[in-house]
Amino acid sequence: MDELLPSPGRRSYAPSPDIVKEVPRFRLPGLPRVRPHFPHFLERRNPADPAIFLTLALSVSAAVALGSLYAPAYQVSVDGVALGLVSSRQAVEDAILRVEERASEILGYEYTLVHDMGYDYTLALKEDQIPVSRVETYLFDQIGEVMKTSVLTVNGQMIGAVDDGESLDAMLESIQAPYINENTISSRFVQDLTVTREYTPTTALREIGEMEAILTSNSLEQVDYSVKAGDTFSGIANRHGMTVDQLRELNPDIDINELWVDQTLTISQAVPFLSVETTDRVTYDGAVPFPVEEVLDDTVYQGYTKVRVPGVEGWATYNADVTYVNGVEQERIINSTDVHTEPVTQVVAVGTKPRPKTMATGKFIWPIYGRVTSGYGSRYIFGSYSFHSGIDIAGSYGASIVASDGGKVTFAGTGTGGYWSYGNYVVIDHENGLQTIYAHCSSLCVKAGERVYQGQVIARVGSTGRSTGNHCHFQVKQNGTTVSPWNYLP
Ligand SMILES: [Zn+2]
Prior knowledge:
Helix content: 10-25%
Oligomer: single chain
Distance between the termini: 111 Å
Number of strands: 28
Number of helices: 9
Largest sheet: 8 strands, antiparallel
Structural class: alpha+beta
Bound molecules: zinc ion
Number of domains: 5
Strand content: 35-45%
C-alpha cells in the first residue's frame, strides 16, 4: 500500500486512497465509500474480504486509466490566493507541518501557521500541476518574523542587523585593531555596544560594509575652545578646518578683534562615531620629578618667589598601565617604580618683604577718565581700514595721565621711525610680562629708567603725532605683542 500513499519529497501521480474516496464519479454504484487511510485497516483486518478488495482495485485502476491524460488534482489556495494545482492534499498538509517545524526550530517556540487553506478538487492535465515544494516555499516566505539576525546597538541606538554574527564580530574587531599592540591588555569601545541575536524584520538587515561605514564615520560636533595667548580668530578657524565666516556664525556674540586669553569660543570638530579605549601595560625608563619645598624669605618681595636650590630630576624604571582613547593618552597609572637615581628637592623662597609702591600690583587703573572715542581692533580712519592697536580716551588739553600700574619707564620721548604717529609718548614695563603705552601727549613728566607707582602722573593730554584731537592713546602689550586693553582695564 505504501506506493499508493503520498510520500513527502516525492512526486507521484498515482491516486491515493483519499483521492479515490472524494471522487463520487470514481465510486462504483452500490459500493461503500472509502474513508481516507481506511484501506490500511481494511487490508489488515479483513485481508480476504473480496468485495472491498474489488472496490479498491476497480477504483484504483479507473483512476490510473483516466490519469494517463487527466489526473485528479487540488487547486490550492492560501488566504484566498490561488497557488496552483497539486496532486495530493496530504502532500500539502505534510508541507505545512514541515514549515511549522522549521519555523519553530528557528524561533525557539512552537510556531503554528494560521492561514486559511483551500483545496478545490478538480481534474487537471498532469503538466499543469505544480510541485508541492513551491507551496512550501510560499508558506515559509509568509513568515516575516523568523529572520534571526545579529543586532548591533550603540548607546541604545539600533545601528542594524546582519544575518552573519561572525562577520559582525570580525568587523568590530577590525575597528579596534589599529589601536592594539603587543602591550595592550584591554580594549573596548567607549560607547555602550551590544550585539544580540534577535528576530528582526527583514528591513533591519544591512550589509556589513554599510554598518562599518556608519561606525567609522565622523560627525561634526560643536565643542568649546579656550583662547590661548597669541591666538587670532582666523588662526583658530584655520587650525580647525573652518572659514572665518563659519567660526563667526558659531560665535555671533563675539567681537573677532577682541579675543582674550581663556575666552571660550564654540568650534566645530570631527568626532568619531565610535571611540576605542585601550590600556597598554608598558615598562620604560624615565625621569623622577623632584619635590618642591617652600621657605618664607623676608629678602623677597611679597607675591614673588625665588628658587634657592634648583631641583634635579631622578631616573627610574617604571611599569605603568596607560589608557588611550583613539590613541590619545588619557590616564597613566604607575604600577611600580624602580628608582636608579634619587631626585634633588627644589627649595623655593616665598617672599614676605613689603612691596615698593613702584612695583606692579597686577591690576590696572584707567590712565585718564574719559569717553573712549575709538576702540581696539579694525577701524576705518584716514580713508582706509587699519588696525587700531589701543583705545583712544578723550581728555582736555593738559589733563593728567597716570601710570595704570607700577613699573619702570622704558621710553619717554617723541616717536620716530615706525612710532612717529604716537607723538610724545611713554612706555612702562610692569615687569610682569605686561607693558603699557600712553601716546599723543602734550608733555611728559617722567624719564626713561625712572620707576613709577600706580596712579603717578606721567604725562599730560595732547594731540601730538597722528592725532585728530586731544586724547590719550592707551595700548597694552603682553610680552611685546599688542593685546586688547579691555582684557586688563577694570
Ligand atoms: Zn589711538
